[in-house]
Amino acid sequence: MKMKASKPLPETIPTSSMADIAFLLIIFFMLTITIEVDKTQVVLPKTTLRMEIPKKAAYVSLDSAGQVKVSNGEEISASVPPAEVFAFAAGVVATDPGKEFVLKADAGVPYRQVDEVIDSLKRAKVRIIYLLSDQKTVDSAG
Amino acid sequence: MKLARDNKVDDEIPTSSMADIAFLLIIYFMVTTTFTATRGLDFALPEDDDTPPVVEKEESVLIEIQPGGNIVVDQKPMELSGVLDYLRPKLEVNPKKPVIIRPDPETAYENMIKVLDELRQAKDKGFAEEIRISIPTQREIESFWY
């Protein structure tokens, strides 16, 4: 019996699944992306212990110039005078009494300024604060 | 002259550029994603009320942080690495003994964080319980300190 000669293979690289893979990656990035509510540039202090900060926590940031910014965890942070941190925190706690607060302060600011912020949060009945820090490494320990 | 009719219409949706668009979007997400520090030391704030905290000075350990960052524990200058060794015998007798951190208003914030970080590691370093740490604010010190 005579066999038919096989047809020549197409010379193209199959790229039809590339778009599927790319869109899967896009979905992954869209789900994992977290919107940074506070973009204040500070040099964070370094600690060995670091706990995970809950998402949607309210932010109070204090930069090296002493400028205070606040965010309720959903809106982008805005500058406020230090005296208004209490009113801001009290408003947030009135809405959600268990709301966690993050204190993002520059490592070099005088403790007096941090003390004023912590005192405002205490008076506003905030229960727990997270002192934002970077990981302490062997190099930074020395 | 008779023109030949072109009856062949391409019945495929052109998808060749879809991958390009998708990869452009990926690059956009990769560039705009920032790796943010979302960890830190947690610190439970005591409830603020008008009644003074019932902490006798003699029953607690006082850690003072001087403006330059030097540490004085119960009036004795000390290195940060020696603080837990100093506290160990005291807390073995009374694990509930409060430890009060009192930073100087002019010291850098990181000096307070260093002490707090060290004390929070007590349980990892063989202490039976977490240390009861208190950081009174200047207002509380002026109101309640004696």
Question: How would you describe what is shown here?
Answer:
The complex is a heterodimer of chains A (142) and B (146). Chain A has 142 residues and is of the alpha/beta class. Chain A has a domain of 96 residues: Nucleotidyltransferase, domain 5 (2-Layer Sandwich). In chain A, 30% of the residues lie in helices and 20% in strands. A 5-stranded mixed beta sheet of chain A has the order 5-4-3-6-7, with helices on one face. In chain A, strand 3 and strand 4 form a beta hairpin. Chain A is elongated and about 95 Å long. The mean pLDDT of chain A is 87. Helix content of chain B is 31%, strand content 18%. The longest helix of chain B has 15 residues. Chain B has a domain of 87 residues: Nucleotidyltransferase, domain 5. The model of chain B has no long low-confidence stretch (mean pLDDT 83). Chain B has 146 residues and is α/β, with parallel strands linked by helices. A 5-stranded mixed beta sheet of chain B has the order 4-3-2-5-6, with helices on one face. At the A-B interface, helix 1, strand 1, strand 2, helix 3 and strand 7 of A face helix 1, strand 1, helix 3 and helix 4 of B. Strand 2 of chain A pairs antiparallel with strand 1 of chain B.
